[in-house]
Amino acid sequence: MTPPAAGPQLSDRQRLNWLRLIRTPNVGPASFRDLVNRFGSAEAAIEMLPGVMRASGADRSVRIPSLAEAEAEIEAARRFGARFVAVGEADYPPMLRRVDHPPPLLAVKGTAAVFQLPPVAIVGARNASLAGMKMARTLAAELGRNGFAVVSGLARGIDTAAHHGSIDTGTVAVLAGGLDRPYPAENGDLCDTIADRGAIVSEMPFGWEPRAQDFPRRNRIVAGLALGLVVVEAAKRSGSLISARLAGELGRLVFSVPGSPLDPRAEGTNGLLKDGAILVTEAADVLEALAPLVEGGLPPPPAKLEEPPDFSATPPPVDSDRSRVVEALGPVPVEVDELIRHTGLHPAQIFMILLELDLAGRLERHSGGRVSLVMGDA
């Protein structure tokens, strides 16, 4: 495995505390960022977290992983030949740093050099046709020969074909479970080969068996890692269409390979074309659309976590403030600025109330910084 690139690095103690914080129940990438911004460090946030959780109305005390547990996971990663890369470090995938709320820590096995290639994702049906798999493999191979890294999710069918097509030029597999739990198990050998020549990544703990709800999170990383996403085959309701929607929300280009109207596996891809996706019949279609993004260069990623509102002259929120925010929220996503205008509360107070709701599992975060109340709490 290639050693970490030169650049800012967390200390061992910081990495342990980052891992403890992100492994705490109900602490996701957004609440992790907010806690670190609010309290100055992951270590300080861990100290303050029980009090914040009590204010959130959580019905049970928070269970923060111990230092020993974090050390054990880091050691498991080391034995596996992997490491945890933080969002501010040089080896963190550049495109993923640009999404809203990127994973604070990413488990990586392989070479970070693959992240420096312009990336494009290829996804599609698990029950793919032979023609679809041939198309995915051909696209991946041609994109790889033109200097692109191919990103996919290691699933059966189209994902597997895309990885095989780009195995010699650079491919990235995003796992829904821990790095040591590739899914499907039949792709274990492929996963090992990818790690030898490219990279496998996951935001999930080691030993984590993927559940149904983990795959949309994986799809978000697949979309976030790439400049654009190509859908080869997809039924009307499929995870590939979720990836395409996420890619569009993240400002990535969405491509689609047309198929026969008589094939259910083409219903989703043909629908994407009707909705404005870029039509793909050969790799040149993708290369032409991505060329301006590659040649023009990307803006530099954010240098640090966002600054929180100034809390110094603002009283903390009280129960009546919390009630006003909960009453204003519902299942439909709204912008935080709209919430501030409606309630008349200070941004710092809104910031803390949303953080409390997030930690209590009552808040859902959406693209563009929008928020909604989890159904059942409205």
Summarize the structure.
The chain is α/β, with parallel strands linked by helices. It is built from 14 helices and 11 strands.
For this entry, give a set of tags.
two-stranded antiparallel sheet; alpha/beta; Rossmann fold; nine-stranded mixed sheet; disordered N terminus; single chain; 378 residues; Arc Repressor Mutant, subunit A; 11% strand
What does this structure look like?
A 9-stranded mixed sheet has the order 1-2-6-5-4-3-7-8-9, with helices on both faces. The chain has helices at residues 12-22, 29-39, 42-56, 67-80, 130-145, 158-165, 188-197, 214-225, 239-249, 267-274, 283-296, 319-328, 336-343, 347-359; strands spanning 83-86, 105-110, 119-123, 149-152, 171-174, 199-202, 228-231, 253-256, 278-279, 363-365, 371-373. Strand 10 and strand 11 form a beta hairpin. 43% of the residues lie in helices and 11% in strands. The protein starts with 11 loop residues before the first helix and ends in a 5-residue tail after the last strand. The protein folds into 3 domains: 12-109, no CATH class; 116-200 and 211-296, Rossmann fold; 319-373, Winged helix-like DNA-binding domain superfamily/Winged helix DNA-binding domain (Arc Repressor Mutant, subunit A), CATH 1.10.10. Mean pLDDT is 89; it is low at 1-6. By secondary structure, the chain is an alpha/beta fold.
